[in-house]
Amino acid sequence: xxxxxxxxxxxxxxxxxxxxxxxxxxxxxxxxxxxxxxxxxxxxxxxxxxxxxxxxxxxxxxxxxxxxxxxxxxxxxxxxxxxxxxxxxxxxxxxxxxxxxxxxxxxxxxxxxxxxxxxxxxxxxxxxxxxxxxxxxxxx
Length: 140
Known about the structure:
The protein is of the alpha/beta class and about 140 residues long.
């Protein structure tokens, strides 16, 4: 999509989940709630390729992926990609505090448990994108 086609550039969100129905549900919620442009990845390899080539405004990441798991995807995104500082929101069925803490230590910005509540998803992604675009001018 070129800027000539829109009045303002839309935020871009990468959604990573091996379940197609979940990818489509998350995409529909975000497109309707935030008017974002979404890219869908059904495998960890696809997610790493996309995250290595394009800068996103937010990434939604499932942890339980076949092959390369979500933790490793998160580590790779944080290690070397155009998305080192991009907010990553984990969306997982895992609800234990140890997993949440592990994700936050590994560089996730937020953690949501499936089934995700529509308003919580929109509010979380909006807040994460806003915090990224807010200039850090304190202490000037």
